[in-house]
Amino acid sequence: MVNKSENLLVEAAQLYYGEQQTMAAIASHLGMSRPTVSRLLKAARDTGVVTIHIKEQPHRGHPLERRLADLYRVRVQVVRPPDHATEQVRMRRVAIATAQLVDSLMVAGTTLGVAWGSTVTEVAQYLPKRHLEGVTVVQLNGAGNASHTGIPYSGAILGQVSAAYGAQMVHFPVPAFFDFADTKAAMWRERSIRGVLAVQRKADVALFGVGAFGGAIPSHVYAGRYFDTQQLADLRAQGIVGDVCTVMVRQDGTWADLDVNRRASGPTPAELAKIGRRVCAAAGKHRAAALRGALTTGAITDLVVDVELAEQLL
Q1: Domains identified in the chain, total number
Q2: HEC states along 63-74?
């Protein structure tokens, strides 16, 4: 049953957004102060009574989109931030566009797989709040390392995505990278882990970014003490340019022969390819080599990218 306060939220929102009345007029109509109306409108946005979609300047048919789509056989959205935008602003614009894309794919009963990372952290903040029945949000890759469990970081991301849709949340309580491949193999036989893997395999949509070395906003895999200095140097020496869901890739898209991937907890590109829609968000020129490798694996069906990174890819 809708209570009085909820009715007020809806009425204030309808008057302001639907009928475009001023706050002063709404305050007079409802018999309250303008600050109270302002608080009602903020509550309407925060609780999902009102969702606001900012449509980027349309780029459908933009030459960059067509060329990338033809080259990699993916759906592409190129986001054009303001000139001289900071890396943070570029990532934010990509995150907003990605959140809108993911939301357009969400219906009742959807299982959404989410891989944590710097870009996905941003995307989670911009998902509109709307309750959907029977939605499940499952973590795709483990987050712990020798220094910490990774639960606060990955849990915050999963929590935001789940809260947006009132979804059931399924954690994946394993390290990002196991010390030994045999340990991973043993864990993958445990019933509790097999249960999470089964939910991952049922995913209808996957959301992830691309990890890469360096950059003004470093990828969490390389800045979060998952590898020491010597290990990072070893990865580079093997031609590794980044990762998708903690699975390392070379620029040519090869990954299966890399020993580190036998210890990685995330789904391989081949496993990702079994999910119908696989949305990748990427911003920053330093991700060009890693994104090229990820695209070559076939792990991506939908790409949201800023214009500078798109140009760098080509």
Answers
A1: 2
A2: HHHHHHHHHHCC
